[in-house]
Amino acid sequence: MLAYVIPLCMGLLGLALVLNMLRLVRGPSVPDRVLALDTLYINGLALIVLFGIWLASDIFFEAALLIAVFGFVGTVAVGKHLLHGDLID
Amino acid sequence: MPFWIELLICAFLLLGSLFALVGAIGLYRLPDFFTRLHAPTKATTLGVGGIIIASVIFFSVQKQGLSLHELLLTLFLFITAPVSAHMLSKAALQQGLPAMDKTRGRRWKDDGF
Amino acid sequence: MTRFAWLPHPGLSLLLTGVWLLLTNQLSLGHLLLGLFLGWVIPLLLRRYLIFVPRVRKPLKLCLFLLKVFWDIVVANLHVARLVLGPKERLNPAFLEVPMVIEDEFLLATLACIISLTPGTVSAGLTPDRKTLLLHALDAPDIKALVAELKHRYEAPLLEIFECSPT
User: Fold this and answer.
1) pLDDT digits (tens, 9 = 90+) for B27-45
2) Where are the domains of chain A?
3) Contact, A61 vs B69, CB < 8 A?
4) Where are the domains of chain B?
5) Of all residues in chain C, what percent are helix, strand and coil, respectively (each to 5)?
């Protein structure tokens, strides 16, 4: 059964990624685009974890963790830049 | 792998993907930035949480031993999602992004004013 | 309050050890020792930058509170999903101002995180004197009732669980 459910879930997550991309391209303001990028990161992370289950391999965990960390740091850095105009606080 | 465990994993996977999709739909179709902020911070976080729980169950059964390190991802996401949402909404308030016409209540121009 | 100079944050040390064990994903004596060492050394090196965490007074209540928050997160997600998929006319967005009793930095951050994660609200700002929190709610038909519910549901238990003076 997993052999059918995992591709289905990948399809759903792929659709979510497409919607995020559309918001990233359309987004009328900069915070909109940053929010879309942040969501894109998190959905990509979910897709990687799913791919790890599909291959029954543990090695994707580190990649997912790194994506989570970089996504958060990137979002906070851009948010600070929007608030103060510089990154060093 | 027993059938009912496979069923459980499938249920968590489907639930997680559906929540992630709901978050993306909300990000796409809600009318202004502040309402759009709600969908990804809540739905997407829980969606990824569901997929990660499925992953924990799968690897624990497959490797005959507890495999909990995916929980770190959930922990990290649950701590960071509100922080980045707060950051972005502060930035949006400062830039004076338009809110929906129906929005009630007073909004601040900048920190505390 | 007794705080030893060589172990400034016992709770954080324990948490770091747990995180290290999770990260390596195996429970052996060597990793336990390494985790304990890291949990001891990292707070010691960073002690100038860490904020003060108030002591937990009622650990059992804390566990129950965390379970309740987790359940609320699931319920809030179902609510938000229904709002997102429903027609746009049903949305009732509003900005709320919540007066805060809590003064402690750590508890304030915790409360803001919980509020952002749970019931259709996102924290959007804080006055410089830390007395008022600005929230944006996705669906708030009754602003006053929502503010009262937030204060009763999350702020009061936090004050009760942690050791701090409310004024």
Assistant:
1) 888 888 888 888 888 888 8
2) 6-83
3) yes
4) 3-92
5) 55, 15, 30
For residue A13, what are the contacts with CB-CB under 8 A and spacing of at least 6? A43, A46, A47, A50, B17, B20, B21
What is the DSSP track for C114-143?
Answer: HHHHSSSEEEEEE-TTS-EEEEEESB-S-H
pLDDT grade, residue C2 (50/70/90)? very low
Please give the backbone phi and psi of residue C123, each rounded to the nearest 5 degrees, phi first: -75, 135
C73 touches chain B (CB under 8 A): yes
Residue C140 with chain B: CB contacts under 8 Å:
104
**Residue C162: strand pairing partners:** C56
User: Which ipTM value was assigned to this complex?
Assistant: 0.83
- CA angle (C82, B18, C91) in 5-degree steps: 20
Residue C95 and residue B90: Cβ atoms within 8 Å?
no
pLDDT band at B113 (very low <50, low <70, confident <90, very high): very low
Question: What is the C-alpha separation between C166 and C104, in angstroms, rounded?
Answer: 9
Per-chain mean pLDDT for chain C: 77
Give the Cα separation of C14 and C53 in Å (integer).
Answer: 14
C95-130 tens-digit pLDDT = 877 777 777 777 778 888 888 877 677 777 777 677
Domain ranges in chain C? 10-45, 59-161
Contact C74 B67 (CB under 8 A): no
Task: Show the tokens assigned to B77.
Answer: 């996401």
pTM for the full predicted model: 0.82
Is some CB atom of chain A closer than 8 A to the CB atom of B43? no
